[in-house]
Amino acid sequence: ALLVLLINAQVTVTWSSSLALAPAPSCKSIECPAYDIIEQGEGYEIRRYNHTLWMSTSPIPNISFVNATRTGFLRLFDYIQGKNDEHAKVPMTAPVLTDILPSTGPFCESSFAVSFYVPTKFEKAPPKAEESLALEQKRWDVRYAAVRRFGGFVSDYNVGEEASKLQVSLSGSPWEPSLSLYSVAQYNSPFEYDGR
User: Which domain, by its residues, includes 49?
Assistant: First the structure.
């Protein structure tokens, strides 16, 4: 899994051709968004994503990252299985991205939005989701993300730990996050146990 902090930093970006267009993990058989690696540091990398299209859930209030992600994924899965205005099957892509807006106190619900990367084949005119799924299209302009990779299954317990580790890694750098929003990008199927 990857922990992603979307950042809005005012920095001068230097780009190294030796870091260009690295493939995302587990993207050998399904489409993933391309990105450039701008910088690699201890415990993080900075990525630049170009224009991409995502299908996203409306915010899901929940105390559990895992439960909210499952709820959102099932709605997105219905969409790619044909619950759209064209009854089209849309190929599975990676990652499944969960945006997290943390709650302000313990035992309070956070807000989660789960997103599916729309394949380039459908990017210009994606099928519209059935209204009951409460999905919306989100177009990203160029976006920078601070990323921390970690293995295993994502749980309600390790999401916060990994977010803290990423923030510590970025502390004092020009990429230090100024936002309280972070995301988890899951590239592996829940049925994959090897290579996580």
Answer: 2-11+18-186
